[in-house]
Known about the structure:
- This protein is an alpha+beta fold.
- Helix content is 33%, strand content 22%.
- It has a seven-stranded mixed beta sheet with strand order 10-11-8-18-15-16-17.
- Strand 15 and strand 16 (396-401) form a beta hairpin.
- Helix 3 packs parallel to helix 6 (151-178), helix 13 packs parallel to helix 14 (442-451) and helix 21 crosses helix 22.
- The protein is globular and about 85 Å long.
- The relative contact order is 0.11.
Amino acid sequence: MTMASIGKIARRTFLLGTAAVAGGVAFGYYSYRKPFANPLKDELAEGEATFNPYVKIGSDNRITIVAPRAEMGQGSYTTLAALVCEELDVLLDQVVIEHGPSAPAYYNAAAMREGAPFPRFDESFLAESLRGTMGVVAKFVALQFTGGSTSMIDGFDRMRHAGAAARETLKQAAARRLGAQAASLTTKDGIITDPASGRALSYGDVALEAAELAPPSDITLRERKDWKLLGKPQPRKDMLAKVTGAPIYGVDVDLPDMLYGTVRMNPSPGGRMRSFDGTAALAMPGVKKIVAIDSPYGHGIGVIADNTWRAFKAAEAVTIEWDKGPIPSSSAEMEALLTEALKGTDSFSLRTLGDPDLVFADAPHDSIVEAEYDAPFLSHAAMEPMNATARLKDGLLEVWAPNQGPTLIDTVGSRITGLPKEKIRVHTTFLGGGFGRRIEPDFSDYAIRLALEAEGRPVKVTWTREEDMTHGPYRPVAKARYKASLGEKGIPRALVGSVASPSVMESAIGRYYPDIPMGGPDNALIDGAFNQPYGIENYRIDGRKVPLAVPVGFWRSVGNSYNVFMHESFIDEIAHAGGRDPLDLRRELMADFPVARAVVEKVADMAGWATPAQPGHARGLAFSLSFGTWVAEVVEISERDGAIRIENVWCAADPGLVLDPLNFKAQMMSGIVFGLSAAIGQQITFVDGAVEQSNFHDHDALRIDRCPRIEVELLENAPHMGGAGEPGTPPSMPALGNAIFALTGKRLRRLPFANEIEFA
């Protein structure tokens, strides 16, 4: 796809967005400007008032902040609350934090804006127009979900405004009581004071009166220099419950009269169930029902019993005849299809510079560098098993689930039960790991289907680890071919790359909304390759969608997870072929991108790049811009008795604005460990139409005894706020591969590396 083609698409989308904003036929100005209803109004306790979807205050001075993004260990629970507290002028210790209900008021606009198919450094009229249009569309779609490292970006303005609006209406109510002007009153730690008289009122004293008032239209947010909470480390509000083992996760849900369930789905993705015989299972103690499941997410059986273990054992005892799914039988067959796609001409490109084909036509053969890279399917492998609890009683469906997409559960519940959305309640618990896996509504779908058979009793449905790991959805498999022509001083005159992979968007939308067709380019497929800040005059990355029928989804950092590995490995190969230091080449190619140069130079200083590594050691460098954050990493390794050990990782990151430096650093560390785990040994492979791996013994994460020392430094030069949850993952994989090459001379182009070398 040419830039002209994407320009036409963008212009058409921009026109729709303009119509939306300007009051055109497409959406309508009134509909766009009209705020969503405050979902908290229907859930107020006696003596409690709500000011907007994010703030509740009781007459007893109990302050509740709604942080409507999933807390899965990334710290959003605390920092989102801090955004409100900063402007509400209260301390974090003074508030209770809740996830809140499923509601369109909490839609994620930033995820759609940031997903526009342009590099983040592209601030052209067309790029900014499309981002604005995507933000308009986001409101009409109204999806509440956690993903794309956008929780802080999305909440930064709207949650601060929520705190400020509540503060100003409280001051208005207090002014009436005190006979003063609201502008003359001061606030601190939930107390409103009249300096003239010295009298004071608590927020609780005036909460009910204030909730009846409209906030002023000219609210001014605090300047950064006046922040009391933001920009500083804050104690994690979720930590006490986690370290004391409080029942906060979905798997901990315990309701009166509860039943328990599990599922067993066709092991061949997409395959149906011909028949089953549950006679033996129904004869087992505590087993209540065996239910056939026919869902967009899988086909098989569900078991209802009086405890989870009995449900597990009963599921094993059911005799089932399966049909084979539509997927290719083996990983080798899938790779062959990817290879064939790379040979073909069916592709799309979202960014083409110059005329690379013309350069290659005239390039001397000895100036050409070529390489092919491979990345496997991956499981998310979250520690908490997939689970959900559902109850259908008296015309009300309730679902308790550790999920990243509550409005998707609304849609699924309505589809299964026929109930309107107002008769569905989704309770989002803490998540024992998410990584994109828990945006999927499959575990809630199955729980709802079993609840239909439970005669009004709640059913907690828990998957075995094997059920999750052998059914996905997975990070997609990918294969890429890169080619460059080198000119003077080893600088690439042209670079082209072709990436073949299944489309995450087509697979995911096909599961979430089976009736909506999907087509066209998928920028996630080439994300992390086409949009990197390298000044190469003739440049093109194209994508080739390969439908393998294996369910694929949003694994941490999505397309960046494999594209950055491939792209940054190739940049390193170019440096080696041209006789250039990998740092110096990147610095030269980043001449027009000072933010990128700054993080690369910073991490080089941190790692002592200018100083030779000690004997038996080597370092590798990689960079990526993903989810708005510019990241450079250096991995240092050593070789001991023929095995590679990762010794140190240095990371410099620039998200533009850091709201909690310690938490941001923790997320970068987490992402690095996640990426190194995948680079070293993780893969999902297929034999006879089914997944070979089943648990942590054959899809393991980096254990603590193999974890390197990690040092993170943060810069704030970028012009836009970036995310924290995912950007640390992509550079870790190529940095490790580049270090291995520097130490051994062996270029590893296929993940995971443990298939070719041993790690200590």
